[in-house]
Design a protein that fits this description.
Layout lengths: L9 E7 L3 E7 L32 H17 L6 E5 L10 H15 L4 E6 L7 H7 L4 E5 L5 H7 L9 H9 L6 E5 L1 E2 L8 H14 L3 E5 L11 E2 L2 H13 L4 E4 L1
Parallel strand pairs: 2-3, 3-4, 4-5, 5-6, 6-8, 8-10
Antiparallel strand pairs: 1-2, 7-9
Helix pairs in contact: 1-2, 2-3
Length: 255
């Protein structure tokens, strides 16, 4: 099993299938993974296999490292398209997430004003007001919703808290009033497959209720900790994308 543990607090730039040239901001430790999900498809591996020994980077460390990297990129005239909060776990779980967003927007405005600020999140912390309000400030508030089926969520996304309820997550996603991008992983496995109408139709109805500014659907791109998983086909993703588009919601598919 091959996994990726990202440097912290800054990594890249890397080329994102969905976002372009992305400078990564990792709010988790550099030597392991901390996440409120334990997804069976996570490129960083299972939580239990990569327990970190280092602390999370502080707010000050993040701002200092980001400014240093942006200064270098300005000198090289290679500015990023996007500053992306991602990495070894759920970024919104950092205790200073809201303050770090403020710092990042300030530095973006100073060094690369055309770049977008994006957050890749699993939506487990959006019930917290400081997190919710901070996400309203970013350009791309990208929240995961792989399905609305609790059994599938427990098999695939595997929330680490017993307090996760998808109905509550959906309610909070609606409260963004359209300032949200829904991101969904479609894939297949021995006991999981969310590409069929049994899962797609209820998910689609929920997406219509959320009224996001965009939907991003994708499939497995790298090796996964569960070796039995398989990619959704181009035809399957295209079909799901077209159903979203037919609802008047912009949608992209990444293969």
């Amino acid at each position: 099993m091959s996994t990726i543990i990202y440097p912290s607090p800054i990594f890249g730039p890397v080329h994102s299938r969905r976002l372009g040239i992305s400078l990564g901001i990792n709010l988790m430790p550099a030597d392991g993974k901390i996440c409120t999900f334990d997804c069976i498809y996570c490129e960083c591996g299972f939580n239990k296999d990569f327990r970190p020994h280092l602390p999370r980077p502080t707010r000050e460390e993040v701002a200092k490292a980001l400014e240093k990297q942006l200064t270098l990129m300005v000198e090289q005239e290679k500015l990023p398209d996007v500053l992306t909060f991602a990495g070894n776990g759920e970024p919104t779980a950092h205790p200073d997430f809201a303050e770090i967003i403020s710092d990042t927007i300030r530095l973006r405005n100073q060094y690369c004003p055309n770049a977008k600020v994006s957050v890749l999140s699993n939506a487990t912390m959006i019930h917290k007001k400081k997190v919710f309000d901070a996400l309203l400030l970013v350009d791309n508030n990208i929240q995961k919703l792989d399905t609305i089926d609790p059994i599938y969520i427990n098999k695939v996304d595997r929330p680490t808290s017993g307090n996760y309820h998808v109905e509550d997550v959906i309610r909070h996603l609606k409260e963004f009033n359209g300032h949200v991008i829904i991101q969904t992983m479609f894939m297949k496995g021995e006991d999981v497959d969310n590409t069929g109408d049994q899962y797609v139709q209820p998910w689609l109805e929920t997406v219509k209720d959320i009224k996001p500014q965009q939907v991003m659907i994708y499939t497995i791109d790298r090796e996964t900790p569960d070796s039995h998983l398989r990619k959704a086909t181009h035809e399957e993703l295209d079909s799901i994308r077209d159903r979203v588009l037919a609802c008047g919601i912009p949608c992209t598919a990444s293969y």
